[in-house]
Specification:
Its main location: membrane. By secondary structure, this protein is α/β, with parallel strands linked by helices. Helices cover 50% and strands 12% of the residues. It has three domains: 105 residues, no CATH class; 113 residues, Vaccinia Virus protein VP39 (Rossmann fold), CATH 3.40.50.150; 192 residues, no CATH class. A six-stranded mixed beta sheet has the order 2-1-3-4-6-5. The chain has a two-stranded antiparallel ribbon with strand order 7-8. The protein starts with 14 loop residues before the first helix and ends in a 6-residue tail after the last helix.
Length: 427
């Protein structure tokens, strides 16, 4: 789109300034218009509507440039030809991608989501028909459950979901009691399953719900996660790459050799400490830190406590100032972590809390972070009681459901201020 501007005799006074203006407005309009948010159940006319809205708004922005920046030499006709040409080009590739993805799902059976349906209502049967006939949507219908008012039938459904790696659960509100719905919600949250329901006139919970259409069937998602939207995912990843690169280049490049010497002078052992932790979708990854303890066999089992004899003198300082966490910016750059997100725990502790703490697994719907809302809200460091981890989970879930780039920036700034003034549980 940017390169094509040179093919038209538009007569710019300041071509690179105009290109910057074009890119900024394109991205701003795309963000407002949800231009990149094309889901598997999005229909062709919705994509065409997106394209028309995007380019109509862009046309207003570009022609406003002429008057606002007083550019009398710009050819209005050439600018119009450019807009039409780019509209046709972008439309061709966007629609082509849409059709290729549909064919990939329908013919080759790729990019599939395993789904089940709970309930035997008319809308549930219609939804199953859509799954079975509209293969381009990429939903592989596995089984329909008619759940009775007893514990056994619901447990049978849960076992099937785990054993058959079901990705999404659809249920009719009319088919389940409120008690069963609550159990289904808890099960989905604790096992990283997406839960969506087919609405009717029954009273439902006052939650943040996402309303979508699959063909003509209305579907509500129980949890809307802003970070999963394509534009937000791109913005967060771009922020992570830029921020982590700056820290690595301008801070770690000279700080690492100095710390390496100091750490090795005080105690023998590696400069970096590597520990397996659970990240996005519960997958394990190696989390890096500057070593702050003497090498010991309990490092992967026992959390640091106040007055811990394993902590070295330099280790106490870098833990107090959070300098020991800086190597995790490499984890961010590699894509295992984000700058901001729920803090990852040791694998042993994660498994323990997953069984003991309700909705603990919801934290793994997003990448873990070097810092997070829970940490800046007073819940960092040692977990002394279940209340500590329960409150941490509450803040993490709030962050997941209410993410914004501004919230990330606020958390980063607050983390820096906390590191400067010191925190009570930073040991």
């Amino acid at each position: 789109m940017v390169g094509a501007i040179f093919l038209f005799p538009i007569n710019f006074n300041h071509v690179y300034f105009f290109l910057l203006y074009l890119v900024i407005f394109w991205e701003a309009i795309a963000f407002y218009n949800h231009f990149y948010e094309v889901q598997r159940h999005t229909r062709l006319f919705q994509i065409v509507a997106l394209l028309l809205r995007q380019f109509v708004l862009l046309a207003f922005a570009l022609y406003a440039y002429i008057g606002f920046f007083k550019q009398p030499n710009i050819s209005r006709l050439a600018l119009g030809e450019y807009l039409i040409s780019v509209f046709l080009l972008v439309s061709f590739f966007k629609i082509l991608t849409f059709f290729l993805l549909n064919r990939y799902r329908a013919v080759l059976g790729g990019n599939l989501r395993n789904v089940i349906v709970l309930g035997n209502t008319e809308k549930a049967r219609q939804l199953i028909k859509i799954f079975n006939t509209k293969l381009h949507l990429g939903y592989k219908f596995k089984k329909q459950f008619t759940v009775k008012d007893d514990e056994f039938s619901l447990k049978k459904c849960f076992d099937y979901i785990i054993e058959n790696e079901i990705n999404e659960i659809y249920f009719s509100v009319a088919a389940l009691s409120n008690k069963q719905i609550n159990k289904l919600i808890d099960f989905a949250d604790n096992n990283l399953k997406e839960l969506k329901f087919i609405p009717d006139n029954k009273d439902i919970y006052s939650r943040k719900l996402k309303y979508e259409y699959y063909d003509y069937i209305p579907i509500l998602s129980m949890r809307d996660i802003p970070i999963q939207e394509p534009v937000n995912k791109f913005a967060k990843r771009a922020f992570d790459i830029i921020f982590s690169s700056c820290v690595i280049i301008f801070l770690l490049s000279w700080l690492t050799p100095i710390l390496a010497i100091i750490i090795r002078l005080e105690s023998k052992g590696p400069i970096f400490f590597k520990q397996s932790r659970n990240g996005f979708n519960y997958k394990e990854f190696d989390c890096y830190k500057f070593r702050s303890m003497t090498p010991n066999d309990d490092a992967n089992e026992q959390q640091a406590t106040k007055g811990d004899m394993r902590i070295t003198k330099v280790g106490a300082f870098i833990r107090k100032t959070s300098i020991d966490e800086l190597p995790q910016f490499f984890n961010v750059l590699f894509g295992d972590m984000s700058v901001v997100g729920p803090r990852p725990h040791m694998v042993k502790h994660t498994n323990m809390y997953a069984e003991r703490i309700d909705k603990f697994m919801v934290r793994h719907f997003v990448k873990p972070g070097i810092t997070g809302l829970a940490q800046t809200s007073g819940f960092r460091g040692e977990i002394e009681t279940d209340k500590d981890i329960v409150n941490r989970v509450k803040y993490d879930i709030f962050y997941i459901e209410n993410w914004s780039l501004l919230l990330d920036l606020k958390i980063v700034i607050q983390t820096f201020l906390n590191a400067v003034k010191g925190e009570e549980k930073a040991y």
